[in-house]
Design brief:
The protein is of the alpha/beta class. It has a single domain, classed as Alpha-Beta Barrel (TIM Barrel). The chain is 33% helix and 11% strand. It has 10 helices and 10 strands. Strand 4, helix 4 and strand 5 form a beta-alpha-beta unit. Helix 2 runs parallel beside helix 3 and helix 9 crosses helix 10. It binds pterin-6-yl-methyl-monophosphate (PMM).
């Protein structure tokens, strides 16, 4: 399968952390039934995709074993997929990704960009599922020691290109890749803000871009009280939605958030106002046009797709869809989005 097409607005990816220790919602969805119910709620709130993870990646986190991680995510993904929800699995382990694929996961979200498990590329290539490659410099317990950059945006793009080349060399279809600058991963607040300010440069590099700013520590610091106490994670939703909107303006493909409703609402406002967020920025697209009531670029059936030149994914007018997949409808204001995968 190839990457879900761009929507008129970025897709909202809702997060379900089936973990006891994630920084913002640890323990809330560790129970399988609670996690499933939360995934369904995220969709009702406007998420197009639900990202299910079984291992915390917060700074300083220690690893869980693969058996535990798999046991957390597989039943949740199986149930959500059976209910018609498009799911991604947030894992750096090939064995967990494989088990998730077996129960219908549509996308692999790998915060290590394929670096943590050398077998991941093989699994993704064999299953032909879209693969989110995040910018990563090392595991959570050491990553903040690695936050040294010359020009953070240029460095992130360069290091992500290396991950793309490695994926392609391992047999992964380049058109199935989504890139993510990895906000908060080996990055201090100033790096996160610089990346967000210059997201358009990442978008222009040519791949669909996902951002994951939701509730992150740099927002807690931004919104700190007068005494300097960081705002707790559940008070960072408005800031998260503001970032989603500003990222939409720069042409990102999707925003990964814990609270789907606030981001979906912000994007619905932009859509209702006829904003053409990102249309001018996306590779190969011509000048911005109002998106409300305008059908998205038709998708080309996979069989008719031209091969991709390395380093430059197809322009949207040659954007590919898997055979038999319907083109996505324009983003309906107020209604949940559905992804095309
Ligand atoms: N951030 C977290 C986890 N997974 N995946 C992607 N692609 N991008 C991110 O920024 C990202 C991620 C951090 O932990 P959380 O699940 O509590 O948000």
């Amino acid at each position: 399968m190839l990457v879900p097409a761009y929507g008129p607005m970025p897709w909202v990816i809702g997060v379900v952390n089936v973990t006891p220790d994630s920084f913002s919602d640890g323990g809330k969805w560790l129970d399988t039934d609670a996690a499933i119910a939360h995934g369904l709620q995220l969709v009702a709130d406007g998420a197009a995709i639900v990202d299910v993870g079984g291992e915390s990646t917060r700074p300083g986190a220690h690893r869980v074993d693969a058996v535990t991680e798999r046991a957390r995510v597989v039943p949740v993904i199986a149930a959500l997929t059976a209910a018609g929800v498009t799911c991604s699995v947030d894992t750096t382990r090939a064995a967990v990704a494989e088990a998730a694929i077996d129960v219908g996961v549509a996308i692999v979200n790998d915060v290590s960009g394929g670096m943590a498990d050398p077998d991941m590329a093989r699994v993704v290539a064999a299953a032909r599922v879209p693969w989110i490659l995040m910018h990563w410099r090392g595991p959570s317990d050491v990553m903040q020691n690695l936050a040294h950059y010359g020009d953070v945006v240029a460095d992130v793009i360069r290091e992500l290109r290396i991950r793309v080349d490695a994926a392609v060399a391992a047999g992964v279809d380049e058109r199935s890749l989504i890139l993510d600058p990895g906000l908060g991963f080996a990055k201090e607040a100033e790096h996160n803000w610089e990346v967000l300010r210059r997201l358009d440069e990442l978008v222009k590099a040519g791949w669909p871009i996902l951002i994951g700013a939701s509730r992150k520590r740099f927002l807690g610091a931004l919104l700190a009280g007068r005494d300097g106490t960081p705002r707790p994670p559940d008070g960072r939703e408005v800031a998260t939605a503001a970032i989603s909107l500003l990222a939409a303006q720069q042409g990102v493909w999707a925003a990964r958030v814990h609270d789907a409703r606030s981001t979906a609402d912000a994007l619905a406002v932009a859509s209702a106002m006829g904003s053409a967020f990102g249309a001018a920025e996306r590779p190969g697209t011509s000048p911005a046009v109002p998106l409300v009531g305008v059908a998205p670029t038709p998708l080309v059936p996979a069989a008719e797709c031209a091969p991709v030149t390395s380093g430059r994914p197809p322009a949207p007018d040659t954007r590919c869809a898997p055979s038999g997949v319907a083109e996505q409808p324009p983003h309906p204001v107020g209604a949940p989005q559905r992804a095309v995968v």
